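tool_call predict_complex ligand=zinc ion
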Amino acid sequence: MSIKMVDFVVDKRSIRRFRKFVPVGPDNECWPWTGHTSKKGYGLFLVINSNGTWSNINAHRFALAISSGSVEQGKLACHTCDNPPCCNPKHLFWGTSSDNLTDCSKKGRMLKGSDHHFSKRPELTQLAADRRKISRGQDHGCAFLTQSQVDSIRAEYAAGARQMVLAKKYGVWQPTISDIVRRVTWTGVPSGPRNA
Ligand SMILES: [Zn+2]
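tool_result ok
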């Protein structure tokens, strides 16, 4: 998978503009983006590219760039909390799509199917954060899937099952299903004995 990257300018003005959209909370809680978001629920932040043009990037990528002092080329800004609008740098790391899944797998946490609505309804983000506080550690938004589940998801999708239905069935976000069926994630592992 090749990831297109552009260098963007990180200066005092852009940092000041960025901070207006991210109310800072305690270290161990999510800091949701309050500005525009993408369809997947990620914050969108307008940056100046090094060639002088403007473009929207994921807000959490900018958050990680500020906190780590650099942008790691070819890497994604990943969430340990799997909460798309979250811009708390303590919940972010440079990695790959599979790092993101691996990190979630280590925690072995399951996401309840209903949580995918939160990414589409920003007003519920605070509610989601509150729920996470209450059910600390158990319902933290990380999905744990096995290879056989991934195989089943691909087979069922190929047979016509809708992504939303699969997301609910396997307790993951719909974008996670989308990434699996498009083989954005789980690309490095063979898909069953047939290796299809
Ligand atoms: Zn977070």
